[in-house]
Amino acid sequence: QKEVEQDPGPLSVPEGAIVSLNCTYSNSAFQYFMWYRQYSRKGPELLMYTYSSGNKEDGRFTAQVDKSSKYISLFIRDSQPSDSATYLCAASMDTGRRALTFGSGTRLQVQP
Amino acid sequence: EPEVTQTPSHQVTQMGQEVILRCVPISNHLYFYWYRQILGQKVEFLVSFYNNEISEKSEIFDDQFSVERPDGSNFTLKIRSTKLEDSAMYFCASTPGLAHQETQYFGPGTRLLVL
Q1: Contact status of B97 with chain A (Cβ, < 8 Å)
Q2: Closest to B56 (Cβ–Cβ): which among A88, A98, A102?
Q3: Residue B74, by phi and psi: left (phi above 0), alpha (psi -120 to 50) or beta?
Q4: How confident is the model at residue A107 (pLDDT cuts 50, 70, 90)?
Q5: Which of A112, B15, B51, B108 is 20 to 30 A away from residue A81, measured at CA?
Q6: Model confidence over B52-88: pLDDT tens digits?
Q7: DSSP string spanning A21-59?
Q8: How many whole angstroms from its chain centre is CA B45?
Q9: Residue A41 and residue B41: Cβ atoms within 8 Å?
């Protein structure tokens, strides 16, 4: 059972575009949702986290969780070439201390 | 800014050999984790560790794996008898584990190649 699914991309956008990255999940017990950015052969870098449903904004990044449809989104405004990376969504049960279940990642390329 | 560190960055070993991967979690963090990522695949959870004992583990974390916090700063993953399929990137992570401070911060990883 694929608990967290992501479109692997690659997604190519011009600089300045709004990027929408999405995940779906199947486990209703997931409560914490995170987005990580991973550059090639590096460790995942935490971008955003949200608890349960709702929106959270941090600078150019907005994370959305819709638990009714089991849908997780990350929006990037005014995308920059430095945003080119693989974006991983992750989810955990109860709290963020529990094991994270990752999606396969979406590779994003922002063209200058 | 504090960060998780891992050593070595790369490790090559022969099948059947024991390897120890080392991590220094962020100071004052209470929960520690190991994940792995086989090339081209998802990041997978292996084990979590709190208060000197395993708090959660996956099916991957079988008897050939063990974890230890030998002192106040290091956290290690031992693979007793490596197999070809153990070749992967191994990530250590840590979190404060306090209310509203539960996000996991990852290290840069150790690339393990088993020949």
Answers
A1: yes
A2: A98
A3: beta
A4: very high
A5: B108
A6: 999 999 999 999 999 999 887 899 999 999 999 999 9
A7: EEEEE--TTEEEEEEEEE-TTS--EEEEEEESSEEEEET
A8: 9
A9: no
